Amino acid sequence: MPTNTPTAADALTDVTASDGSLRRFLHGLPGVDTVGLEARAAALGTRSIKTTAKAYAIDLAISMVDLTTLEGADTPGKVRALGAKAAHPDPTDRSTPTTAAVCVYPDMVATAKAAVAGSGVKVASVATAFPAGRAALEVKLADVRDAVAAGADEIDMVIDRGAFLAGKYLKVYDEITAVREACGTAARLKVIFETGELSTYDNIRRASWLGMLAGADFIKTSTGKVAVNATPANTLLMLEAVRDFRAQTGVQVGVKPAGGIRTTKDAIKFLVLVNETAGEDWLDNHWFRFGASSLLNDLLMQRQKLATGRYSGPDYVTVD
Fold first, then answer.
1. Which of 75, 107, 122, 269 fits a disulfide with 101 by CB distance 3.0 to 4.6 angstroms?
2. 87 to each of 70, 73, 75, 90, 96, how far by Cα in Å?
3. Measured between alpha carbons, how far is 85 from 82 in angstroms, rounded to an integer?
């Protein structure tokens, strides 16, 4: 299975040699056909799947969830409960897959790590002055190092959207590469663009390539803290980017839509996007994730409905 490294984009090293060369490359990417992109995303969203395939899709989606709590009111008890749910989403049915990860703030990493010990569930941590990303680079790197030292398996960093929108692409690139270095070999790196603040599809395509050139293991749509988060169209665009990046460099990069994906029906639409755009190689939680918490509850209810023919009572799943 391909993995990323800080030097994974060696085939494109000349592109990042200077601010000018990076700008020329990013602005030389094909412009996005907005109408075509949104029409294709909508058309793929109408695909229906049969019951046996739906059961498989639900289990696959459960295994792709990064179960997340990122609130100022997070407590050790809440994080331990989240970890227990990630390890055993349905305590009455041990055939239910574990989620991919739990995602918490850096100060909760050690608590989360203890809660999921032995389960195979990863611990992800947001860092780099999440969610705004407005801090000095050394502060951001200290945030990352603290999370990694506490045992984080994955780091979800936010880019400096102000710098990106001002056209300071090399500054954003250098920050991502510095964070990649701070992760070392201990943690995979997810790079969050906050697509709702990038305004245009062309900017999302440029950010996707910029993140991948800088060594991202995943590119991620959103923090979940703004009005516009993951959509089928922006996720489709990012899936096209990782597909094309692998074709050009041989390096596979994951995709993580986050924010606003709440129902099984929504999750299945996104899985169809993955299959039809990037292909089966991405239908694995090593390469595709859902940043969500309430989504898991609906997946569990739909799974129980398929197994028993009826929906569970209101106490069957926890409400996050």
1. 122
2. 19, 22, 19, 9, 10
3. 5
**From CA 20, how far away is CA 10, in angstroms rounded?**
18
- The answer for residues whose C-beta is within 8 angstroms of residue 246's C-beta and 6 or more apart is 2, 252, 253
Closest CA to 239 of 189, 201, 288, 170: 288
- The CA–CA distances, whole Å, from 213 to 20, 57, 180, 232, 278 equal 15, 31, 11, 24, 18
Tokens describing residue 224? 């979940």
Query: Tokens 């239910």 sit at which residue?
Result: 96
Contacts of 87 by beta carbon, 8 Å cutoff, 6+ apart: 98, 115, 116, 119, 121
Residues serving a catalytic function are 156, 220, 256
Other beta carbons within 10 angstroms of residue 275's beta carbon come to: 16
Collapsing DSSP to helix, strand or coil, 38 comes out as helix
- Say what the pTM is: 0.92
C-alpha to C-alpha distance for 62 and 151, rounded to whole angstroms: 23
Tokens read off for 4: 């990323």
Residues 154-202 pLDDT 10s: 999 999 999 999 999 999 999 999 999 999 999 999 999 999 999 899 9
Q: SS3 for 137?
A: helix
What count of other Cβ atoms lies within 10 Å of the Cβ of residue 1?
Answer: 7
Report the amino acid identity of residue 157.
M
- Bond from prior residue into 131 cis (ω within 30 degrees of 0): yes
Residues whose CB is less than 8 angstroms from the CB of residue 25 and which lie 6 or more positions away in sequence, other chains included: 12, 15, 209
Sign of the C-alpha dihedral computed for residues 70, 74, 80 and 82 taken in this order: negative
Structure tokens at 19: 């601010």
From the list 220, 207, 280, the residue with the least C-alpha distance to 255 is: 220
Report d(CA 199, CA 184) in Å as an integer: 32
For the segment 68-95, what is each residue's pLDDT rounded down to a tens digit?
999 999 999 999 999 999 999 999 999 9
